[in-house]
Amino acid sequence: MASRLNPYLSFAGDARQAMEFYKSVFGGELTLNTFGESGMAGSPVEDQIMHSQLDSPSGYTIMASDTPPGMEHKPGTNLSVSLSGDDGGELRGYWEKLSADGTVSVPFEKQMWGDEFGACTDKFGISWMVNVIQG
């Protein structure tokens, strides 16, 4: 799988509705994963979206989630750039350069869904998420 770069949108509880709307606009295949499916069953956010992805027939990819508990949702700053793929060496290199002189909000390490993942804001104030898919 080649690495991909795409927008990652954050919502305040309406990610499902937003992504279904974007599917109606762009077409394609939509996957939705809830917080409940990811180990937070029984919590107030169990039906909210932990991760979603829309792959359009035109090659567009949009990823999104509801803002997790404990994190602030602030319209206007609810967009990150996502880098993902299975080339760990390439993506770890990007991570090192993007996070240098920036602020790391999620250390780059193996996550509960099995992938290596990290989130940071680069020295120019741009939010990045890097995910190495484990095969």
UniProtKB/TrEMBL annotation:
<dbReference type="InterPro" id="IPR029068">
    <property type="entry name" value="Glyas_Bleomycin-R_OHBP_Dase"/>
</dbReference>
<dbReference type="Pfam" id="PF06983">
    <property type="entry name" value="3-dmu-9_3-mt"/>
</dbReference>
<protein>
    <submittedName>
        <fullName>VOC family protein</fullName>
    </submittedName>
</protein>
<feature type="domain" description="PhnB-like">
    <location>
        <begin position="5"/>
        <end position="130"/>
    </location>
</feature>
<dbReference type="InterPro" id="IPR028973">
    <property type="entry name" value="PhnB-like"/>
</dbReference>
